[in-house]
Amino acid sequence: MGLLPVMVIFGLSFPPVFFELLVALLLFLVFQRVLQPTGIYDFVWHPALFNTALYCCLFYLITCLFV
C-alpha cells in the first residue's frame, strides 16, 4: 500500500498521522469509558501509565491498519 496524501482542510495542511492520532484518541476514550466501571483500574498500579500504554497500543494498531 502507498502512503496517504497530505489532507488540506480550509487551507490547513494535515499529515496523515494527525488523523491516525484522532482515531486512536476516539478509540481510547471509548475503551476508557468501558474499562472505568468494570473496576480494572483498581488492579492497575499506575492508572496514568496504563492509560498512556493503552493509547500507544491503540495508536500502533491504527497505524498498522492505515499503512
UniProtKB/TrEMBL annotation:
Keywords: Cell membrane, Membrane, Transmembrane, Transmembrane helix. It is a multi-pass membrane protein. The chain crosses the membrane at residues 6-31, 43-62. Its main location: membrane. It is found in: Cell membrane. InterPro entries: DUF1656 (IPR012451). Signal peptide: none annotated. GO terms for cellular component: plasma membrane. It holds the Pfam family DUF1656. It comes from the Bacteria. Belongs to the AaeX family. This is Protein AaeX. It comes from Enterobacillus tribolii.
